[in-house]
């Protein structure tokens, strides 16, 4: 009878490249108890706080963010890869290990002054989350926190986001890349 989210996460060696240990949250999602624990723990620091919207980062952040938004009785906003959203969007580029990526949000997804919680499964370098924060702030919203299931502290994402002035909540951490 496990109560630790980490126990539900599968580690897969050499995926997607040799030397990488992939932290697979699909095993967490597939277990009803594990998934419930993760959602409850993700939203716990924000219970009672005013959260107007939950913004989920593509793609596993949609699964988690949708469930968190439901529990908080608030709306959900997807932050997607470029070209995936219909209608008018704003875009934010960010650096990857090799090259650049772009995420987008609908230009009417958030109103000025709305309080937003960013949710994703994994915090690595923090580039995607920082880009998501930038999109929310460009629409006039205030990001009140960033919640992740997994933090990879050696990759510096927490330091980046906290350095930008944002609170980071992670359920578990794995050392290394």
Low-pLDDT stretches are none
Helix share, percent:
25-40%
Whole-number mean pLDDT: 95
Biggest sheet, strands in spatial order? 5-6-4-3-7-8-9
Q: Give the overall shape.
A: globular
Strand content: 25-35%
Order of helices and strands: EEHHEHEEEEHEHE
SS field, number of helical segments: 5
Distance between the termini: 29 Å
Total count of strands = 9
Rg, rounded, reads 16 Å
By secondary-structure content and strand pairing, the structural class works out as alpha/beta
Largest sheet geometry: 7 strands, mixed
For the structure shown, list the relevant keywords.
about 180 residues; alpha/beta; about 30% helix; globular; single chain; two-stranded antiparallel sheet; 9 strands
Descriptive notes:
Helix content is 28%, strand content 34%. The mean pLDDT is 95. Helix 2 (32-43) crosses helix 3. It starts with 9 loop residues before the first strand and ends with a strand. With 177 residues, it is α/β, with parallel strands linked by helices. It is built from five helices and nine strands.
Task: Note the topology.
Blueprint: E1 10-13, E2 21-24, H1 26-30, H2 32-43, E3 53-57, H3 60-72, E4 75-81, E5 89-96, E6 99-106, E7 115-123, H4 127-138, E8 142-151, H5 157-163, E9 168-173
Parallel strand pairs: 3-4, 3-7, 7-8, 8-9
Antiparallel strand pairs: 1-2, 4-6, 5-6
């Amino acid at each position: 009878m496990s109560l630790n989210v980490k126990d539900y996460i599968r580690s897969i060696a050499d995926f997607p490249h040799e030397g990488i240990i992939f932290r697979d949250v699909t095993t967490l999602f597939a277990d009803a108890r594990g998934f419930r624990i993760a959602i409850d723990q993700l939203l716990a620091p924000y219970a009672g706080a005013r959260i107007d919207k939950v913004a989920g980062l593509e793609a596993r952040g949609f699964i988690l963010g949708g469930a968190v938004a439901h529990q908080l009785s608030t709306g959900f906003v997807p932050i997607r890869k470029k070209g995936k959203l219909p209608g008018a969007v704003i875009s934010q580029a960010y650096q990857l290990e090799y090259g650049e990526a772009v995420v987008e949000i609908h230009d009417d997804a958030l109103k000025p002054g709305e309080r937003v919680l960013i949710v994703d499964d994994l915090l690595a370098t923090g580039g995607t989350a920082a880009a998501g924060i930038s999109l929310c702030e460009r629409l006039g919203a205030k990001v009140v926190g960033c919640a992740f299931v997994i933090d990879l502290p050696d990759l510096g994402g927490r330091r980046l986001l906290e350095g930008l002035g944002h609170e980071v909540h992670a359920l578990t951490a794995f050392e290394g890349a």
